[in-house]
């Protein structure tokens, strides 16, 4: 862990409704890199919660420099990493089936594609694939290097459009939230879809673990969404929310990580993950949710 505290940037306006009033929601420790405590604020007007203050765009990359950041490292050491890879491999096929149901013309941009497992699978299903990934080490590991670019603003994407854009646990990391969604809208074909998967802090496991809920993951998770937040944000920017689907296994994986943070055990994690899913059958507040959003004409 590094112990040089970076200067933090205070966000004056709610990233969704732009209200200036907020209150403290939680104080959460960064268990991955710095051991610093970060504040999560709650907008008084719309109730959205977001990490504030946060590292600058120039320094936030330092907080990703952890061997535990699995999507960039590809490591399979330890129980949590093994579970992550097993679940990911199972869900890749389900994700591809979902996007295939939305588009006859198979063109996809996967934003934050990491080491490329999802895109590689899509390519085997005859998708024309492109991806973006800001982490250069992840891009080196990615087998689709020639189709993966540093950002959605890269010149290689200037004249391209896509039928489907996916963001699997990426939106919570996006630094310039509204600007990037507008950019993605411009990269979509008419009636194209954006698929967004993010943690849901209204889930049972979030409320059960509180400040130790792993999906708060400060400071690299800049925003902490509810269903209401996604609908409000995207409707303002020209999208219609078509449906919401659960990521069933996330409650177990996130509970495992949360138990690690509080010094608990894997049996408690399995129990809490199961309880979270049982409760979510009634209120639809699963640990993580997939949002299917269609571009308005």
What's this, in brief?
The chain has 297 residues and is α/β, with parallel strands linked by helices. It contains 9 helices and 13 strands. The strands form 3 sheets. Strands 8-7-6-9-10-13-12 form a 7-stranded mixed beta sheet, with helices on both faces. A 4-stranded antiparallel beta sheet has the order 2-3-4-11, with no helix packed on it. It has a two-stranded antiparallel ribbon with strand order 1-5.
Please tell me about this protein's structure:
- With 297 residues, this protein is an alpha/beta fold.
- The protein has one domain: Rossmann fold (3-Layer(aba) Sandwich), CATH 3.40.50.
- The protein contains nine helices and 13 strands.
- It has helices spanning 70-73, 79-100, 117-124, 136-141, 177-187, 204-209, 227-236, 250-262, 266-283; strands at residues 8-9, 22-29, 37-43, 49-51, 54-55, 107-111, 128-132, 148-149, 162-168, 188-199, 223-224, 239-246, 288-295.
- The strands form three sheets. Strands 8-7-6-9-10-13-12 form a seven-stranded mixed beta sheet, with helices on both faces.
- It starts with 7 loop residues before the first strand and ends with a strand.
- 40% of the residues are buried.
- The mean pLDDT is 92.
The gross shape turns out to be: globular
CATH superfamily: Vaccinia Virus protein VP39
- Unreliable stretches (pLDDT < 50, length at least 5) are none
- For the record, the CATH architecture stands as 3-Layer(aba) Sandwich
